[in-house]
Amino acid sequence: MAPHPTTDWNQLQDRFYRKQEIYAMLWKQLDLSKFMIAGAPYGGPIAMIRDDKKVILLQKQQPVKPTIYLYTSAGKLMEQLQWDKGRIVAMGWSESEKLVVVLEDGTIRLYDINGEYTQLSLVKEAKEYSVIDCQIWGTGLVALTGNFKLIVLTNFEEPRPHLMADPGLNEPPHSWTVIPPQYTLSRHVEVLLATGSTILTVDTKESQDQLLQQGPFTKMAVSPNGKFLALFTSDGKLWVVSTDFQKNLSEFATKSQVPPQQLIWCGTDSVVLYWDKIVLMVGPFGDYIKYSYDDAIYLIPEIDGVRVISSDKCEFLQKVPNVTEEIFKIGSTAPAAMLFDALDHFERRSPKADENIRSIRAELAEAVDACTEAAGHEFSQYWQRNLLKAAAFGKAFLESYNADNFVDMCQTLRVLNAVRYYEIGIPITYTQYTRLTPDVLIDRLINRHHHLLALRICEFLKMRTDRVLIHWACAKIKKSTDDEETICHMIVEKLINKPGLSYAEIANTAYKVGQPKLATRLLDYEPRAADQVPLLMSMQEDELALIKAIESGDTDLVYLVMLHLKRKLPLPEFFRIINNKPMACNLFEVYCKQQDLKLLADFYYQDDRCVESANITILESYKQKDLNERTNKLKIALKSYQDDKEHAFEAKAVDENIRLLQVQAQFEKEMNQQLVGLPLNETVHKCITTNNPNKANKLKSDFKIPDKRFWWIKLKALVEMRDWPELERLSKSKKSPIGYEPFVEECIKAIQHKEAIKYITKCDPAVRPGLFIKIGDFKAAGQEALALKDIQLLREIQSKCTDQIIAQELDAYIAQLSSK
Amino acid sequence: MSHLGNTHSSLNVNSLRDLARKELTNVLDSVRGKKCLVLDPNISGPLSLIAGFSLLKEHGVEKVHYLQQGPLETELKSLIYICRPQLNYMKYIAEHIAHHQKDVVSNYEYNLFFVPRRTMICERVLEEAGITIGEYHLDLIPFEDDLLSLELDNTFKELYLDGDYTSIYYAARALMKLQTKFGLIPRVIGKGDCAKHLADMLLRMRKEVAVDDPSSTLSVSQNVDSLIILDRSVDLISPLCTQLTYEGLIDEVFGIRASHVEVDSAIVGPASQKSAPAAATSTSNAASTTSQPSTPAKKKKIPLNSSDRLFVQLRDMNFAVVGGVLNRVARRINENYEERHQAKTVMQIREFINKLGGLQSEHQSLRTHTGIAEEIMAYTVTPEFNKALEVQQNLVAGIEINLQNEHIEEMINRQVPILQVLRLLCLLSLVNGGLKQKSLEFFKKEILQTYGFEHLQTLLNLERLNMFVKQGSASSKFNYVRKHLQLIVDEVDEQSPQDISYVYSGYAPLSVRLIQCVTKGGLTPISNPVGANAAANPIGTGGAAKGIVGWKGHEEALKMLPGKTFDEVQKLDDGAIHSKKFAQGQQPRVTLIFFLGGCTYTEISAIRFMAQQDEGQREYVIATTQIVNGNSLLSSVMQKMDNLGHSAGGNF
What we know:
- The complex is a heterodimer.
- Chain A is an alpha+beta fold.
- Chain A is 46% helix and 19% strand.
- Chain A has a 5-stranded antiparallel sheet, with no helix packed on it. Chain A has a 4-stranded antiparallel sheet with strand order 3-4-5-6, with no helix packed on it. A 4-stranded antiparallel sheet of chain A has the order 7-8-9-10, with no helix packed on it.
- In chain A, a hairpin with a 5-residue loop joins β19 (217-222) and β20.
- The longest helix of chain A has 24 residues, at 648-671.
- Chain B has a domain at 257-286 and 295-380: Syntaxin Binding Protein 1, Chain A, domain 2.
- Chain B is globular and about 70 Å long.
- In chain B, the strands form 3 sheets. In chain B, strands 6-7-15-14-9-8-13 form a 7-stranded mixed sheet, with helices on both faces. In chain B, strands 2-1-3-4-5 form a 5-stranded parallel sheet.
- Chains A and B meet through α17, α19, α21, α23 and α24 of A and α5, α7, α8, α16 and α18 of B.
- Chain A: Keywords: Protein transport, Transport.
- Chain A: This is Probable vacuolar protein sorting-associated protein 16 homolog.
């Protein structure tokens, strides 16, 4: 049986703190005092490098060259990096678990857990005056330069370092710290600098003196929620204020003039100070707990406690969670404690079990919840099990209890226990896990190459396994020395029954490690054509990229590849690639029509597409202001059309167009009329209205205008001129090819009823009545209808007629017809 | 004639509108403070269907401008552009920025949102302009409960003339979005090469969706059992015919854009502010704040949608009966007004007053539609209109084809607008499978000489589209299709139609007949002496034929029409589930009809008519790339003459 949970509890005023041993370190007795250390939160790894400021006994087995060691929390060596760059000013961990190493010259390196790095650099200022100190938080950092300026870099992913407001210091600050942007009012990072007896708050815009007298402050720390600031004064006082300096929270005299080596927060309500081998935890009301160690230790702050790393073990110091305290506190009568006790009785077959349950009947549901939650807070599997058992026991007495929480907790604990296992070495607490989310935990596992565990957890939690598999495949490719056939086979075999899995990233990795053939093979498995394209382009597989882009149906992607190719390749080569791909050609044509007609002409020319060439040339001809230029263009087009038997008509039409333009130009001079560019009909029309009938006739014969149309044009033109005699002459010149109805209609439109009558009589007798009606001559209409012997029509006319006298006449006609 | 969605719609199309509205507010809120909205003129219409001006105002929009050439003057420093990814727009924006930078204190903030998505080709133009780029995923815009449109303006030209398949990609994405919302559509049936392309892309995207969004595994739709994709190129005849329904004729005469029509304010009488539906106020507000110079002739924008109850009644009717209905409504309203004289007690008076508001808005709507109908009437009685209609009806019915040639020739001689001539010539070519070489060349020459040589390109374009071509060796395939699908129905009762052919007064749109084939396996029983046994026909509507039939029995006719035919089944990995779900469902099933390349208002009316016939069994939801008519279809492929410095074409 595990020791009772309360054995490692310590009381601090009204609350309890506990320090649990989690791991015995796998490393061999390290003297932590000789190292510069950075520990990542959320049970993350520990990075250390020999501190060059400290004397060390040179031992045989230690390499002379400085090395950064990366350990798990259980002290298992994950990676060691030969350090050959300059002096390290600071180390820290980013949110995505990358080790941030800041050098004196302002260079920043971000190492992942496998030792691969990216490098950034700060502004020029840093290089000139060198960086003397640096504060790092989850997503960014602030560097302090030799001339006491501050440089901020807020996002490692998009590094845009810039100077902050000048604090105006002439000497290094006694101590300093930053409040990360997510905790400040302005949502921008703020820096707190201790100088003289006061503190300056600096952001990008201004530096503000807080006008304090209690200083100088030799150490300071911001609480994990950014609300409080712990300050250590030179006379040994620990002073806690709110970060806006409005509230004084507590004061505690340590009687030590020497500032602590580490001053950090344990959760948000107590502060931990560390001097050589002594740990002092100070509560909000001036109470304290003291822990002593035999060797140097290192403290890593967590959101809900402190990880204590010593030469032989890893411990976790935290405030005992409320539910846990409720259950295990000696003499507790809280419902959860009663329930836990009931289980004990039940297992010993004691009737008190029933009594207990009965006594907390009303709060049983809360008791079950509490036991479930308390199980989450335990590191010991023995107590986890017992607490869950108690919850399950209580649950049985409840009729409608939603067991989701309970099931979730069981699942979560399985995951937590798995990752806490010392070989994995992530001592994450339940609180940290819920903050971190399972997704991020999976990322961390795959970064550590625990693919199998990550996969199992994904499957267990019913999450997508894609990224685990993809990461595994990428790692495999990087590590493997087998030939491409074997690797490809091995990867595909594992991933083949995962439909929809994206191979693009895997292929990209293969390409980057110099296995282009493998990359091409893997890319074939990528289900999304669109995702294949960028890699193919970077692999110089131009034509394949274009084919895949076309396959994707995404026209923009096709453009992307085409424009890339056009820039890269000589024009003939580019044309060759797109020629046999109709969709690419079509899009290219559309693009060129808007952007570059010249290029399009080249394209048609190389492909012998003379008809399209001609079309383009004609389009261009319209843009020419000058007539000669225009006809020249048209002549070129004419030539192209003539080359193609199928387009004899077009050739003829263009030829006609050229001739028309020439005639128009000639007439324009003679008639002093704007003609060029008008359609033929209008040109003829203009000739007539300007009294140039001969010219009109010439056009008719030159361009073989059919009689019918010519008559129509003449008719309209003459009516427009109101030249009625000429119109009559026209009607009599020969038998009208268009009949005489159009004459009537046009006259009616011009409201010339008298003229219209002239032509009605020339029309077919059958239509005459209707035409007479149109001009309102009901009498004539009636007469015509009588001639046609159409009673129906007569009646219709009569009904429309308004004139009494005529109506009577119509009556007579009707009578006349009906009598027969 | 109410349309299907109004009373009960199994597919909640409105949720799409809510989604679009929410995203719009996100777009607007992404920029803090007061801002100036610069809109693609082609988007402002559709956008007004999503959100009114008051909503824009709530989210800090102080002013709305149209995106056009020339400098943009505004005091507001935050600009939001919303436009389609078109290169010319990028040039305008670049001009705006360049213009602003001439100022010494230019601290403008530019935000550009592409609809429906950003494209690299456009971003490149603005590469270094310092502009924040985002996306506004506005794709299918709900016009009505049964009508969605992508509002892509030029798809017909792009797809069939240019071979630019961008719109297919957009359509596929929109349909995928629809499927993620309403479930996987188990059957995809269609006709036409581009339609096939779209179907293939849909099937492929479905595989990819698993990669994009790991959490979603598409489940089979509860109520949509089929998607019919029709390619405009399959049926070019219907849009070329003059639409004879009320809404169709409004479109032919005035042109409807984004379900609004613009008419002279004189036509519709003095507006009473109260009666104007909400959408109208919003759009007119938006318009009044734009920098667009207001046109001198007073135009009024009238919303045409189902919030106007009278319009709902009229829209799908044959125009021939609209007059009668208006008359009846006028009488009824008058009677209702008269009721005030009967109101004696205070109670009755109050009752009347309560009704008064509704009555007044009804009155205003009546006035509007009477005005519009009169205007249309004036147009339909002209000899030109009737001549063209006669030619057109003879052509589709296959009567005295050669005689029609002469009529068309005369129309050219009369110099009627070229669009009208081309509509008939294309019809002539389509129903005959082309023209004889001699008459083809004759007409080409007539057109070039009459309307200008520039139209050589227009003619080449039409040839490329197979709309105006030389006759091939085979005899007209259309004759067979016409007979097999009973496209011509001689007896049409416009008052109480029995068949979809009422929308063209005797011609049943081929496209909708094809849909009838798929959903019912045959045609609706029509008052046709030959089809007397139609009621007993097992594949008619009478029976409980609930499933989708598919193309069976019509293979021969389909072969006569251009493009591939397809019928795909989308299965889930665990195919068992969906059959079970469908078995229990008592609610009517929904067929989604997608028109690639646009559809006409008459086709929509015809489908609504089908829906009415199938009430309780099947519902139809129409989605289209845009709404077209013969004019818009043809003018998109005509050689544009704007840059030629003179006006070409016939002058009347």
